[in-house]
Amino acid sequence: MQRIKTTERPGWDAKAEALGFTWRHLDGARYWDERAYYAFTLTEVESAIEAPARELHAMCLDLVAEVVKSEALMERLAIPQASRDDVAESWARRDPSLYGRFDFGYDGSGPAKLFEYNADTPTSIYETGVFQWIWLEDMIAAGALPAGADQFNSLHDALIARFRTIFPAGGFVHFACAPDAIEDRQNVRYLEDLATQAGIEPKFTPIGDIGLDADGRFVDQDNYLIGALFKLYPWEDMFREDYAAKIKDAKVRFLEPPWKAVLSNKGMLPLLWQRHEGHPNLLPAFFEDDPRAAGLGSSYVKKPLFSREGANIELVAAGRRAPVLDQGYGEEGHIRQALHPLTRFEGNYPIVGAWIVGDEPVGLGVREDRSRVTKNLSRYVPHAIVG
């Protein structure tokens, strides 16, 4: 794995605008950054990213099967008691999942280490599935990459195929997020387009405009019944809304399904470690009130059970605490995970994202930052397989 400086494509920003890639910079700060790319060998991708992602996903599914049978484990994960049947029954039905993303610490010199699983509301799908592929094709055409360069990237086609599997007869699906959140709306708009290619009729509804009819069914802003809903809104928040008690009988197929609440929770990290201690792709992790957490010593990462984009994640190295992006997460509890120092590539710390669609790894995306915690505006840098 190498970080290779390169030259931006002439007119890339105008091309991005024309394609609807709106979340590429904000207030002058770059999000998409093609002044460099990360080069991987095929062996690195297949053995160090794809294979571990497949194995870890299977381990995660086994964990869900155990958690949904245990009130104690549900309590440990701060899943509200009133919503535990929703989670368990969703798993019992095997409600289908669309996608998720593992975040790995990886530098090419050893096993990828799992930092977390964005199993419920992962974003950055457009830049992964489309725009970095366009970048690759343009770079090959310009002679800036060899003709045999490739990417680990079938995310676009895999999502279309998955939509067809979940909705084989097509039909009507609602898509929801906060309409004023630029990044969220871009991702949902892209998924609407993919659904259309899969023979589905999509309709966008602002998440705040979803209501209940007299029968307790969810309806959109025009009072149409919602039978299937992709929501870019996390289950931990949905379970704490006033309408949470109505979810069970709403007769809605949710993407992601309620059982993903087990895996989008950072409490799954110590649960995985307890069951697979010593696994090469896992880091030691414990709930903060577990006496074994003290065994991590003075270097660890403190993570809330629920947080987004690096918020309220605290790095402690030899007792020294790094600054924290405080956005109020942590009320439900914390875990401690062993500190795995990231390798600096020319002053940048990359995180490798491995995408899962259905049950299969299908793509790779890299985010980097000058700090050691990946945040909302950490840069997205394309990748290529060149060896």
What is the CA-atom radius of gyration, in angstroms? 21 Å
Overall morphology: globular
In spatial order, strands of the major sheet run 6-5-18-19-20
Can you count the helices?
9
Mean pLDDT: 94
Structural class: alpha+beta
Please report the total strand number as a whole number: 21
Termini Cα gap: 10 Å
What count of structural domains? 2
- Tell me what portion of residues adopts beta-strand conformation: 15-25%
**Poorly predicted tracts of residues:** none
Sheet having the most strands: 5 strands, antiparallel
Helix content: 25-40%
- H/E topology pattern: EHEEEHHHEEHHEHEEEEHEHEEEEEEEEE
Quaternary organisation: single chain
State the main characteristics.
single chain; 387 residues; alpha+beta; 5-stranded antiparallel sheet; 9 helices; 21 strands; 27% helix; globular
Question: How would you briefly describe this protein structure?
Answer:
With 387 residues, the chain is α+β, with helices and mostly antiparallel strands. It is built from nine helices and 21 strands.
Describe the structure.
- This protein has 387 residues and is of the alpha+beta class.
- The chain has 2 domains: 305 residues, no CATH class; 55 residues, no CATH class.
- The protein is built from 9 helices and 21 strands.
- It has a 5-stranded antiparallel β-sheet with strand order 6-5-18-19-20. The chain has a 5-stranded antiparallel β-sheet with strand order 13-17-14-15-16.
- The relative contact order is 0.19.
- The mean pLDDT is 94.
